[in-house]
Design brief:
This protein is α+β, with helices and mostly antiparallel strands. It has one domain: Fumarylacetoacetase-like, C-terminal domain (Fumarylacetoacetate hydrolase, domain 2, Alpha-Beta Complex), CATH 3.90.850. Helix content is 15%, strand content 33%. The strands form 4 sheets. Strands 3, 4, 5, 8, 9, 11, 12 and 15 form an 8-stranded mixed sheet that branches. A 5-stranded mixed sheet has the order 6-18-17-13-14, with no helix packed on it. It has a 3-stranded antiparallel sheet with strand order 10-7-16. It is globular and about 50 Å long. It starts with 13 loop residues before the first strand and ends with a strand. It comes from Zobellella denitrificans. Pfam families: FAA_hydrolase. This is Fumarylacetoacetase. GO terms for molecular function: acetylpyruvate hydrolase activity.
């Protein structure tokens, strides 16, 4: 007797690949916290790379939506923030890789948004609880088309910006990442067997802030692409 599903299984989360009809099956979403000094400072903390390690939170793949989406203002928050991010797409398995080997795991790059219920995140932080309610919720990860590494080369610098309704709110450079991409991949691979389909949101620059119903968000990573989101009226 063959087993039967009790209800339909959720479809695989897929991401667009620029310039092709191929799709990138998303396995996991890792996010690096506080990876720009100026953003850490605006969140009231400091980061000492000499004595600290990167830290991460995750988002469920079902939270991912494509660039260009229009979504409703999320529930149970009154302080809904954008965070512009440079995203690395993993295309090769690796465990305990070195920094020198890390770029071999990269399939490509994209522009992304880590949307955040800031009031819920800060409440959790103040009480020493996990950030899940503030970070991992429906439609909280936005992703532009992934550009293959073969087309961009290794991306380790470039302007990263975000505007809301045409007004620039975030403006920095990937060279200001505290932990760069090879360092992040090497460190993360000590704790996880990285797999094709993993996405790494590498952190946001300073300038994060709230959006409201009716706002239009447009972010960009030089040499990689754009990401766009509208909050429905």
């Amino acid at each position: 007797m063959s087993a039967k599903l009790l209800f339909p299984a959720k479809e695989q989360t897929l991401a667009a690949v620029a310039g092709t009809d191929a799709l990138f099956p998303v396995h996991r979403i890792f996010c690096v916290g506080r990876n720009y000094h100026a953003h850490a400072a605006e969140m009231g903390v400091s980061v000492d790379k000499s004595s600290q390690e990167p830290f991460y939170f995750t988002k469920h793949p079902s939270s991912l939506i494509p660039s260009g989406s229009e979504i409703a203002y999320p529930p149970q928050t009154a302080n809904y923030h954008y965070e512009m991010e440079f995203v690395v797409a993993i295309g090769k398995a690796g465990f305990e890789v070195s920094e020198a080997e890390a770029d071999e795991l990269v399939f490509g790059y994209a522009a992304g948004l880590d949307m955040t219920r800031r009031d819920l995140q800060l409440k959790a932080r103040e009480t020493g609880r996990p950030w899940d309610l503030g970070k991992d919720f429906e439609e909280s990860a936005v992703l532009g088309p992934i550009v293959r590494k073969e087309e961009t080369g290794i991306v380790d610098s470039g302007v990263i910006t975000l505007s809301v309704n045409g007004e620039v709110r975030q403006n920095s450079d990937l060279t200001k990442l505290i932990w760069n991409v090879p360092e992040i991949i090497a460190h993360l691979s000590r704790f996880y067997h990285l797999q094709p389909g993993d996405l790494i949101y590498t952190g946001t620059p300073d300038g994060v802030g709230p959006v409201v119903a009716g706002d239009h968000i447009l972010g960009s990573v030089a040499g990689v692409g754009d990401v766009e989101l509208r909050i429905a009226k």
